[in-house]
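Task 17 of the worksheet. Students: predict the tertiary structure of the chain below and write it out as structure tokens. Keep your answer in the requested format; marks are given for formatting as well as content.
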Amino acid sequence: MTATTLVSEKASPRAAGAARGRRSRRRARTVALLFVFPALLLLGALVVYPVLFSVGRSFFDASGTRFVGGDNYTEMFRDPATLKAIRNTTIWVVVAPALLTGLGLILAVLVEKVRWATAFKLLLFMPMAVSFLAAGIIFRLAYDEDPDKGVLDAAVVSVHDAFAGTSSYPTARARDGQGLTPGRDGSYLTGADLSPGHTVTLGLVGVLPKDLPKGASPAYPAAARKAGADEVRGVVYLDFTPGGGGKQGRVDPKESGLPGMKVQALRDGKPVASTTTGSDGSFRFSGLDRGSYTVKLPASNFAPPYQGISWLGPTLVTPAIIGAYLWIWTGFAMVLIGAGLAALPRDALEAARMDGANEWQIFRRITVPLLAPVLTVVFVTLVINVMKVFDLVYIIAPGPVQEDATVLATQMWLVSFGGGNNQGLGSALGVLLLLLVIPAMVLNVRRFRRSQR
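Model answer:
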């Protein structure tokens, strides 16, 4: 047997093994492709094809039959509504992720020191289980401008009235030709000059009997009292007799006084005395010098009640919707940052405490730098999320201010399907939104790969 024959016999098993290995790898790749194929098919049908179709559709007109090139992209940046949507989207991207990341960090650090930390985390995370549709309806009701419906305005009105008070009779007004003339500021003044020793009756209408204060009593006895030599007396009453009858401009026995009404005595146009009417509507200015006076009912008696804040007005609608978004996503940020916080090396924190560092120094110089990768992931994830926000804006913002609150996602829908019926321009907006989201997605993927290494 020659040496060549021996070498070939030794090599043949190796070659056969290599061939078997190649066949095994090909079989494994084939099986892997068979398993991956349904996912690739769905990815192509639900992601790749819609993206390519939208890019192509953006170069055609509203009907989709005429090629217009880049006209849709030019029109997009000339449309005031689109420019406002871009501005609002920028506000969302700058404000919402930063606030959420900051709130999540603060809450994650504080929760560590709470005894019932798990229950607290559960409460904060519960809004994540609520759909954006339901959350939008909840906050649409909470932001209602009617204090009887909107809980936020009810709280604001309660605090305002507790400190600033409220008008006594916002619907009251004087009858024409009954001795009271309206002032420029909404007040009422007596038309004739009064001197000490006079009694004046000031009749008002426009107040429902059921709206009178509980302690209101008939004004007739007070109207019959005579004024002293150095005083001006009077009565402010509701010039309306329940059940009918009575005479306008005269205090009838069944007519009620208006208690709590502010009254001023003016001399030469300047207030010299002020008082508040009693339960029967009576008032008295005593110790007056001789001369002519005018009695005034200040405008504060008739000012409309404070109605709260217009949360969904053109000025505050975007911050209000961002507030609803914070309510939903704060728990998400807190849980992710809390997980990163739990993985921090405790020896570094304890060493800092032993060296005399206080909690603020530990938080600023150790906790935050060590959490930087987690904070970045949370921030970038939220940036991607807010660029696509649609439900909250569409549901919370009322129709008249929809344009003031619109973002790119809602503008894309409104242009395409919400009345604009221009799917060419809507596709261009979709492409713009995709181009804005891609950099944040690439950054997030790179950070995930870096963390896996």
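Marker's comment: The chain has 15 helices and nine strands. The chain has a mean pLDDT of 86.
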